[in-house]
Design brief:
The protein is an alpha/beta fold and 405 residues long. It folds into two domains: 208 residues, 3-Layer(aba) Sandwich (Rossmann fold), CATH 3.40.50; 149 residues, Response regulator (Rossmann fold). It is built from 15 helices and 13 strands. The strands form two sheets. Strands 1, 7, 8, 9, 10, 11 and 13 form a seven-stranded mixed beta sheet that branches. A six-stranded parallel beta sheet has the order 3-2-4-5-6-12, with helices on both faces. Helix 7 links the parallel strand 4 and strand 5. The chain is globular and about 60 Å long. The two termini are 31 Å apart.
């Protein structure tokens, strides 16, 4: 999500989300939910009632249970997830792969955010260790026609391997099928083109637990909201499996676990200017529902637009939740300002796993068809350690220096 932006500036939230995009239907706002109203003087004079409400908010317990449940996502075709730790190479297999002097191309859907940069970093490191030379890295800026053209250009370089995240499962399928027919070993990130079969047309697909990321983001949002109030959702309006999965994880968790939180508005974003579109969507939500307590955005780049809208409206009390730990959202978490929680992927580790699966393809070794890495709940309290867990480096100075003790 986002997947999903240039994910390099966008992972802050647990959140790049789609509303039943695969069926072509867009989610309808919860029109029947009433906007929140300012508390009456009588209510504000009843601290015991407020204390009772706080005590009844069980978001922490719900989050603990969600984390203990493990990976919640299924694969694009309903496959059960395998753990990344199960994807291993023996010393003898490593020697064989290194001797092949294979080549690889990395074909991204979108390349300017922290998520994409971390994926590429993980792939680059592991391919180097495997003596696999990267001959091309592309960025389609979320335009399917551009990605199709880039695949054609990449195939002229005759790579042994392509690791890619399809922008659209229908529009790109023929290009990927052509690559498979030419004997290229395909490993996918997150999404799979239509009419392609694991173990036959491609090796495997590697993903974060996007549903789980949506779930933990929902619990963090609920905690910040004290389990009550109104919220708007900004989802990814595209046929994109992983952003739909996180949207559904977030929305169903709010609906099932938090009856006093009302979803009162939903708006979709698409195209290349996710931050700008999300700012416009958030502006419309804040105008329509002046007492809106929170907004969730599908990943960190759209959430940056929500931040801009909150500042423009002088709504520094707005609670924002999202997916993906990008630098800008990490700074917000460190300051303990607008962003209050997100579900983070582990893109560096995903890249390492994808490279290992590419080696499986070179060796003819049977691979798990769907590998998923667990969700990581990120709040102000753990943002510095979370950055290290996600990117395998210390948090940037801008994040460290922003941390509010």
């Amino acid at each position: 999500m986002v997947p999903a932006r240039k994910m390099v500036g966008a992972i802050a939230g647990v959140v790049m989300l789609v509303s039943a995009c695969s069926s072509g239907a867009s989610p309808s706002p919860a029109a029947s939910a009433a906007p929140s109203v300012a508390p009456s003087a009588a209510a504000s004079a009843a601290p015991s009632a407020a204390a009772s409400a706080a005590a009844a908010c069980n978001a922490d317990a719900n989050l603990t249970a969600a984390e203990a449940a493990g990976v919640l996502s299924k694969g694009p075709h309903g496959e059960n997830p395998s753990e990344a730790s199960s994807v291993t190479l023996t010393p003898e297999e490593l020697t064989k792969v290194k001797a092949m002097s294979a080549t690889a191309a990395i074909v991204m859907h979108y390349g300017g955010d922290d998520w994409s940069a971390a994926q590429i970093a993980g792939l680059t490191q592991r391919f180097g260790e495997l003596n696999i030379k990267i001959v091309a890295t592309t960025d389609a800026n979320f335009v399917p026609a551009t990605q199709v053209s880039q695949i054609e250009t990449v195939l002229a370089k005759k790579p042994s391997i392509i690791v890619s995240i399809p922008t659209d499962p229908v529009a790109t399928k023929d290009a990927y099928k052509k690559a498979a027919a030419q004997g290229v070993k395909l490993v996918f990130m997150d999404n799979v083109p239509n009419d392609m079969v694991a173990g036959k047309d491609y090796i495997s697909v590697v993903s974060a637990d996007n549903r789980g990321n949506g779930v933990v983001s929902a619990h963090l949002a609920a905690k910040a909201m004290n389990c009550e109030g109104t919220i708007g959702l900004i989802f990814h309006e595209a046929d994109f499996f992983v952003t739909r999965d996180r949207y559904e994880g977030f929305k169903t968790t709010i609906q099932d676990k938090y009856p006093n939180i009302k979803i009162v508005d939903e708006k979709g974003v698409t195209g290349s200017d996710f931050a700008g579109q999300s700012q416009a969507a958030a502006n419309a939500m804040l105008t329509k529902t002046p007492g809106l307590k929170a907004i969730w955005a599908v990943w960190d780049v759209p959430s940056e637009g929500v931040i801009a809208a909150a500042r423009a409206s002088n709504r520094m009390d707005l609670i924002i939740a999202t997916e993906d730990l990008g630098k800008n959202v990490a700074i917000q978490l460190a300051k303990d300002e607008l962003i209050k929680g997100l579900g983070a992927q582990r893109p560096f580790d995903q890249g390492v796993t994808e490279a290992n699966l590419a080696a499986y393809g070179l060796l003819g070794k049977t691979a798990p068809v769907f590998v998923a890495l667990p969700a990581l709940a990120v709040s102000h309290a753990n943002v510095l350690q979370a950055w290290k867990d996600v990117y395998h480096v210390d948090a940037p100075a801008e994040v460290k220096d922003s941390y509010k003790q």
